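Ticket #4471: structure output looks truncated?

Reporter: J.K.
Steps to reproduce: submitted the chain below (393 residues) through the standard prediction queue, then opened the result file.
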Amino acid sequence: MKNKILVTSFESLTAKSAGGIGHLGYKLAETLHRRGLLKEFVCSAKGKWTTSFPSSPVSFSSRYYLFALHKLEKILGIKVHQSRYLQELAYDWFCSFHLDPGVGVLVSTTPYLHHTFKKAAKMGVRIYLIPGNPEDNYIADLVREENQRYGISEDDAYTHSRRLAYYNKSLPLVHHIITYSALMEETYRRRGYDKKLIGVRGYLKPDFATSAQRVQGERFKVAFLAFTVLLKGLQYLLEAWKELQHLDMELHIGGPIDENVQQLIRKEYSDLKHVVYTGRVTDIPAFFADKDVYVLSSIIDGAPVTILEAMHCGVPVIVSDNCGTKDIVEEGTTGWIVPFRNHESIRDRILEAYHHRAETAEMGKRAQEKIDGYDMQVFTEELADIVAKGMPG
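Returned output as attached by the reporter:
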């Protein structure tokens, strides 16, 4: 009897959850298990971590082939987006073996599963996709526009033709696409997936503890934190910084930066003053502890968790209107929403925060209260209700 739901996420387990959109898959699996509906939660790699519900790596060999691919990136000069595509293909292949006659519903947080989706469809399994990003073709178009604007010829994950083709033949096999922000829903609607869409509203609440004491230094500090690709819009923040660098403030940029953006920084912004590149950030509360405002100037972004992490740490945010997480920001109360690709608006909001530092700190407190008062379990219960309806009668 088909009485179980298989949840799969390309991300790997962490100590308490799973990375990125995998956090939502983890919470959904946990909820379905309590209802007696979960078969298992499948992820890229599990390591030493255990869960209170059935979970497994996509393959016993996943840690080894992931390690090997990362090595080949360095030895053979394989681009990161090419390596990711190979990882997704391997994940898809192994994921298909987790389907068995007891599975009635497949829930995935990744769309790059053509082999798995095809097998599920043949078995009569209902397929639900909960994407972590807006629609890929929409994203690819924006990346191409940015590439043309800055004279960049290199592909990235979203313009890589083979990966995009794999996405485009995978998505038609999906029965339902669950979108949890207005932006994400609109991008899939534009692509003609209206009949597949199920719209809900929610977000991924940060699951780490924050320091009770914030530190306010003499110098005003602006934060930017992301795995920075061109779509994160750092170039627009740096353009704004050209007109702010004479003031008594610092810009702290955290997280890895891809080669395309690094080249752009070297070419256009290498002489900017008071900019600190911190590299990979492992202690998020420590990074935000002394920051006055957080900026995420994304050209397009599905559900950037760093906005929520900053608010969770008591930092008000400046976010572009092409970020899905803008839904949680209350304009002028917990932060500001600015037009995307508009460095003047970013500049003006930073200046407003700078010249009204006490009021900005109060906004940070309200932002923290907003996030900490949110119950993500209500969101995951709603998702569980939706996918449970897809079970065979």
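Triage note (M.O.): checked the attachment and the full token line is present. Residues 144 and 165 are 16 Å apart (CA to CA).
Status: closed, working as intended.
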